[in-house]
Description:
The protein is mainly beta. The protein folds into 7 domains: 67-165, Immunoglobulin-like (Sandwich), CATH 2.60.40.10; 168-251, Sandwich (Immunoglobulin-like), CATH 2.60.40; 255-341, Carboxypeptidase-like, regulatory domain (Immunoglobulin-like, Sandwich); 343-428, Immunoglobulin-like; 520-597, Immunoglobulin-like (Sandwich); 603-686, Carboxypeptidase-like, regulatory domain (Immunoglobulin-like, Sandwich), CATH 2.60.40.1120; 690-772, Carboxypeptidase-like, regulatory domain (Immunoglobulin-like), CATH 2.60.40.1120. 4% of the residues lie in helices and 50% in strands. It contains 4 helices and 60 strands. Strands 16, 17, 18, 19, 20, 21, 22 and 23 form an 8-stranded mixed beta sheet that branches. A 7-stranded mixed beta sheet has the order 59-58-55-56-57-54-60, with no helix packed on it. Strands 24, 25, 28, 30 and 32 form a 5-stranded mixed beta sheet that branches. Strand 20 and strand 21 (318-321) form a beta hairpin.
Amino acid sequence: MERRKRSNGRLPALLVGLVAIFGLLRWMVGKGVDEPVHRLSEQRGTDGRAETGAQGRVLTAESEAGPAGALARGVGVVRGRVRSAGAGEPLSGVVLCGVALADGERRCAEADTEGRFLLELPLGRHRLALDSESVLLSGCRLGQDPTIVSLTPLLPAVDVELAAVGAGQIIEGLVLDRYGGVVEGALVEEGQPGELDGGALGGCGVAVTDEEGRFRLPATGGLLSLRASAAGYGVASVDDASARELVTMTLAPEGRLRGVAVRTESGDAIDGAEIHVLRDSAAGWLPVAGAQSGTNGRFLVGGLAAGRYRVEAAADGLFGIGDVVDVSPGEEEEIRLELAQGGQFVASLGVGEGGVACELGHVTLVHDVLGLRFASAADDGGLARIRGLPPGRYVAAASCRGLEVASGPETVEVNAADESPSQGVWLFTQGGALRGEVIALAGGEPLRGAQVVVLSADERAGVAPASAITDERGSFVMPMLAAGSYEVLLPELPNDEEPVVAVVRPGDETKVVVQVAAHGTIQGEAHDRHGNPCVGLEVRAASSGFRSARVDARGQFRVDGLAPSEYRVGFADPSLDAAEPTSVRVPPSGEATVSLTCVAHDATLGGRAVDGEGDPLADVLVEATPLNGDRTPEFERTTRTVLVDADGRFEIGGLVDGRYLVTLRSSAGLELGHAIGETGEGVEVVAHPTATVTGAVVSRDRELSGPIIVELDRAEGDVRRRAVAHPADGGWRWRVDGLPFGRYRVEARAASGEVGSLERVVDGSNESFEVMLRAVDVE
């Protein structure tokens, strides 16, 4: 059992970057699906009666605990463990709460002696927090707030590992714009000093600023680098943050690169060119952003911090590199990318003296002067083709399943486009083969459609995992494995037995038999309303956990390895379901059949963006948000923004038929206007007029101390903006950009206890006014 635990522990590291090839993501997500749910030990009061949670309900009753019972009551489950950030010791008796982001409903539970907890929460998104303002919860989910969880009908259970950080270990800070306004929703990420120039973050602390621009992060010891980013702004960073003082980060307006991609020979615009933006850093040219050119060859890339940038573009065998440009905050640079036909390189990868084609091989080329990197995977015939290469010398490397390279070039010369393709041949040492079968432990029936994975048992570097699916006879074969010992695993099927270990020898075939307990199957079909198969969509069968499969080209799917139970079957993305998920019962060693309908994403929504005079707007972005039956927007399904053309026209494709909230935004992310539109019909979106408002906060009676928060609320209740005032001549100054016209209540609050308010009409004629503060007696 020690070997099994050891191999499971290193699976995530081995599988990074190979998930898409071998389909192992389902295993890692679904690992332990059928393990028993941890139950909290019942807490007893002094009178011997069971104590209840914050909602007056005992969460430890065996008859109802766990995801299956919770889902039947319309709630989900968050389970996990909380430990101290320093020593890693479990925290016993702490109260952990889930707060619904939609309505603020709060439900709590107490951790047991091992620091484990189980929270039953309504389906939806929740923030996890300890019932103490002086303690911060932290986790490790890069790019995401680790304390935010989402519960859905198909994924009603979430497992988390959290650490509690004390008051002396918390970094607190503020993210502002360059005018002193607060930036709500900015993402703040933690790294180690000196890492930000390299473009990577070594820590895993993540926070999102609140409505006052504030954030809290765990201080893991010493000085930390922090990086802040937000829509419409460039990135800001500090390299010496600590828990001893408030950290202030200022985001400058985004720099932008606007350009056009054309053919060198004819000057014709190139539609669909892939645009890559790289920033100069201590670690070299690092990719930071990307885009795709439109029908007129034009593109726009925003959100750039100040710095030196280089732009590359590729399209159907064409390649081009733009000049190096300096981008300043709030400025826009125009570039022209000329793409010429690039050279070609063809690599042949073979194994052994006979040169048997290497499947799943890989070739990498790095330009000796430009430092440009190109890569390609080999096809079933062992050939890898790379097009659109600038001529010159390249450093070359090839790999094949971890086999040793017997011969092959270290550098290659790529010819110009009008010459014959350059070629390279790599041969690898002869490997061995693994052939086996998977059968049921009781009865010996073959198990078809089971995923088999082999991992190097002796942890040799460069030996990639291999994967196969059993056929109708339960058989599988894995050719061309590097010589050595392998553990044979069935990641989708729970199995308490030690993994089978097979020894593969060069030029030989090793045979194995893997036995598993019998399990059931769900098979079915999935089509849209037009009868078209829902090709590639992920179908999930959810119980205490879930297993999944993808719909094939015939519209069919099959989910194997299911323990006898009741399952809800639907698409992994609930927005793709045209109906409620289907419930079926899977019998022992039996099969259940279901039929699913996915929504068709074949509708378009077009229109025009105009100003108040009806003239077309340029350089604005448009997004569409689907509306529910009650006309409430589903913001989590908002589309990516598209850039309008010179006439203000836009078209958004790949939508479901229905009504949408269509929103205009500036390149900085500010809303300019919105309208309701329906697919298949044109919609005109009018940008509302805005103004830049500046002001001062003053007091006649006393000297003010900060911070001072200024809040502007429009009378209709649909616009709210906040800013932070900063000391300057004549008082504390503040500024708000892009404020829609209307009547506003302006309120200022100082940390020293003063408040002040007034009402003003913003119509473009009054750009500045003062807010007088008065002292408030605090009893």
